[in-house]
Amino acid sequence: MSTLLEEVVQAHGGIDNWTKFDTATAALDIGGAVWHLKGQPDMFQGIELTASLRRQHVEITSPTAGWQGTFTPDAVRYGSLNNQAAVERRAPRESYQGHTQQTEWDRLHALYFTGYALWTYLTIPFLYTYPGFRTEELPEWHENGEVWRRLKVTFPDSIASHSREQISYFGEDGLLRRHDYTVDVMGGAQGANYASDYRNVRGVMVPMSRRVFAYDEARRKVDEPLLVSIDFREIDFQTE
Prior knowledge:
With 240 residues, the protein is mainly beta. It has one domain (3-238): outer membrane lipoprotein receptor (LolB), chain A. 15% of the residues lie in helices and 45% in strands. The protein is built from 4 helices and 14 strands. Strands 1, 2, 3, 4, 5, 6, 7, 8, 9, 10, 11, 12, 13 and 14 form a 14-stranded antiparallel β-sheet that branches. The two termini are 27 Å apart.
């Protein structure tokens, strides 16, 4: 584990504390321009989730809209809360072949994207200590009057995520400030994901708010439009 990774893992609560927990539960709202572009504007408002912290498995429920969905890298399933008229897609990533940033999604497309994205966000930076991940510290970055240390992370093929290579930025306190990636399932769209409003949840520092923008060739944030907003209303960690 690199020195920077060791420091940021400790700042977020420490690996010994993290390994006590097996699952995360949360209530949250997701919005932003991407969902209108993709034809699913309100799908993830007022949702609840349960996520495994050791493997990629996320269950998402919308109590008000009356649906539930399950994400794994190999399959997504969507249906009503009474399990009627459920639909499933195997090898879901293959269904994005030929997609551009403007291609509309069905609900299974949206569920796969949201499932892997939330799982990634909930587990960073501890995720980077899991088997198969490779990290490299990059030169410092100046933004918002702060100096941020940067970690380039190469994901193993076994993990579904935005892209194989991603960059995380950490403040002087060791907490995640920004997370950059390209989105393979959106034709390589770029995302700068800003984390804020930290809360200590059972000893783990969790950003309760995320805001995603595009970035330009110099990696400078493009302020408009707000692509994705994520606001956690509640979050907790459990042991099985």
